[in-house]
Amino acid sequence: MIWSRASAGTPSSHRGPEALTRELIEVHLAHLAERFPNPKGRTGQLSNLAGLLRAACQHGWESRLSAQVDLFPEDYPRLVTGPPRSLSKAVMAQLEHPDNLARFAAPSSPPTILIWSRHVSRQTSGR
Fold first, then answer.
1. Domain boundaries, the chain
2. pTM confidence score
3. Of 8, 29, 60, 75, which has the most beta carbons under 10 Å away?
4. Cα(67)–Cα(81) distance, rounded to whole angstroms?
């Protein structure tokens, strides 16, 4: 839909693949930024577009499409990495301490905690 709106001002004889200009792609990128505010979702959309452009060039589906057409790393949104998804050594020591494990009333709870603590990502484990 954005492609048809953005190319509405060009004559119909010029609406072939050669009309897919950098300006039109930038209009599409701006539209994606509004429609997909989450950078991860927008990255998926951009990857799909980049794949289509590369495949069209690689397989010669459209000879009028420039061989240089592509999306570059700077066209993608920066993905913000959050804090590490692991527990510190001090927290793990507290969880695994026998006194804390003994506080659980249900007989099945300590094994559950032990299984969980063995599989949780630790900051020092490199997982």
1. 2-75, 83-127
2. 0.49
3. 29
4. 34
